[in-house]
Amino acid sequence: MAETNHTPPTEEDTTTTVPRAFGYCAWHQGHADGVRLIDVIEQGSGSGGTVFACGPCIAVNNLVPFADR
Ligand SMILES: [Zn+2]
After folding, report:
1. What are 1-42's pLDDT values in tens digits?
2. What was the pLDDT predicted at 8?
3. Taking 60 as the threshold, does the pLDDT of residue 67 lie above it?
4. Domain region containing 37
5. Is the pTM of this model over 0.85?
6. Does 16 map to a domain?
7. Nearest-5° angle of CA 39, CA 41, CA 46?
């Protein structure tokens, strides 16, 4: 019998990282449609997470979406 070296799938953040979605815009502090992932904050304390911004806020603040870097 061949041993299967089964590695469990890496646990990813439960938050979906879809580039376009309805979500919370951290810049105008409200929900908007078509938000994009701007930054991923990695903090061990648990307060980290993903930061999204909507289209208008991206344009006004010259933000660069995380996927476009
Ligand atoms: Zn916004």
Report:
1. 667 777 666 655 555 555 457 999 999 999 999 999 999 888
2. 63
3. yes
4. 21-68
5. no
6. no
7. 145
Task: Domain count for the chain, please give it.
Answer: 1
Q: How far apart are CA 43 and CA 48, in angstroms?
A: 5
User: What is the C-alpha separation between 40 and 23, in angstroms, rounded?
Assistant: 15
Contact yes or no for 38/66 (Cβ under 8 A)? yes
Helices (H), the chain: 55-61
CA of 44 to the centre of ligand 1 (A): 27
Q: What are phi and psi of 61, to 5 degrees?
A: -100, 5
Question: How far, in Å, from the CA of 63 to the mean position of ligand 1?
Answer: 11
